[in-house]
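Supplementary Note 2. Why include the ligand at all?

Several targets in our set were suspected to adopt different conformations when bound, so apo predictions alone were not considered sufficient. For every target with a known small-molecule partner we therefore ran a joint prediction. The input for guanosine-5'-triphosphate is given below.
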Amino acid sequence: MGIVGKPNTGKSTFFSAATLVLAEIANYPFTTIKPNRGIGYVRTPCVHEEFSVTDNPSNSLCMNGVRLIPVEFIDCAGLVPGAWEGRGLGNQFLDEIRKADALIHIVDASGGTDCEGRLCKLGENDPLEDVKFLEHEITMWMANILKKDWPKIARTAETETQDLLTMLEERLSGLGIKRTHLFETLRKSGLNAEKATSWSDDDYLRFIDTLRQVSKPILIVANKMDLPTSQDNLERLRKSNRLVIPACAEAELALRRAAEKQLIDYRPGDCNFRINAPERLNEGQIKALEKIREKILLELGSTGVQDAINTAYFRLLSMITVYPVEDLEHLSDHMGRILPDAYLVPYGTTARQLAYIIHTELGQGFIYAIEAREKKRIGEDYVLKDRDVISIVSARKRA
Ligand SMILES: Nc1nc2c(ncn2[C@@H]2O[C@H](COP(=O)(O)OP(=O)(O)OP(=O)(O)O)[C@@H](O)[C@H]2O)c(=O)[nH]1
Ligand SMILES: [Mg+2]
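The joint prediction is reproduced in token form.
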């Protein structure tokens, strides 16, 4: 998951809150130059209670009935208009998101920073313009990567045996673009893959812009919701028909740090917290925490950070959670660990595809699988459902 946006919007604050990795945060543009990487968690109710077992998570964590599935975040340097042509930190930033499945765009909803991240009067900047600018930058960056080779690819596709999708797939695999993305892009853009040489420049850009939407979907986080001008802008962002989550990354960071020191009881995503150790907090700290409670948690329902992470995986990427087990009776792996793993997979993944995701040999030797809830035998084409517990029977075992 790439965390992107213009400078000074709170990307590193969001990243630190999500991962608890220390990242430099400051009130000026280009604080982050080298990207930060860290692990955060998608949260989903664990299935162990439903099966009345105590679990021993291995690839994930389970806390008070909530399964925490690790996902990687990249906190990028700020992007300024013209970055695709090399302005600001330019392509260096864009290269960081090559492998990202999706992007979280941190927007300064207060409108208190200009298009290059410099402080301005609250409300002066239009965050909707920031959203459009980022989409444009990424489209232009992708368009530029392919531009030089495009005429040749289009010609070859018409005159020789190689088809357009195969060539594009090869050329763009470094951007995490898969054949299914290309299929969907052609369908959505309505362009004729067999007549690529007749595409106009506008057609080409429309193709790339659709490819961007399909292969790097964006969740918008309207950050700095604690500031007075943010609410109006949030409404406007929502009206633009994009997926938008309001947030206050600064509040989440403060709460997670306090929880880490056991000063408060708070789990990311909670709508409230409890002060544990008032004697270790000074008056100013208590005041600040109470302000977060009143102005953020009670008004927004949460700080929005965990909500954004979950929304990015479950709604933007349409992922589901599945729990593969080896021993159906005990719901365990070969080491006896109960419900050891939770996998995030795209909706539409079949039982056999899951086997391949776990291990190539498991996929190759797939015979059938059993769904643990109804103890039903399922075939390779069974489409997995959210929270399925699955045991795969394969002719070949994991090495
Ligand atoms: N009011 C308010 N300020 C915030 C919030 N989140 C971050 N900030 C402040 O915004 C400023 C920029 O935060 P950073 O996290 O460094 O922003 P960035 O987007 O990583 O900036 P660059 O690395 O320069 O691109 C800092 O002063 C933060 O304290 C928030 O939710 N509310
Ligand atoms: Mg930063």
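The chain is about 35% helix and 20% strand. The mean pLDDT is 93. Comparable summaries for the other entries are listed in the accompanying table.
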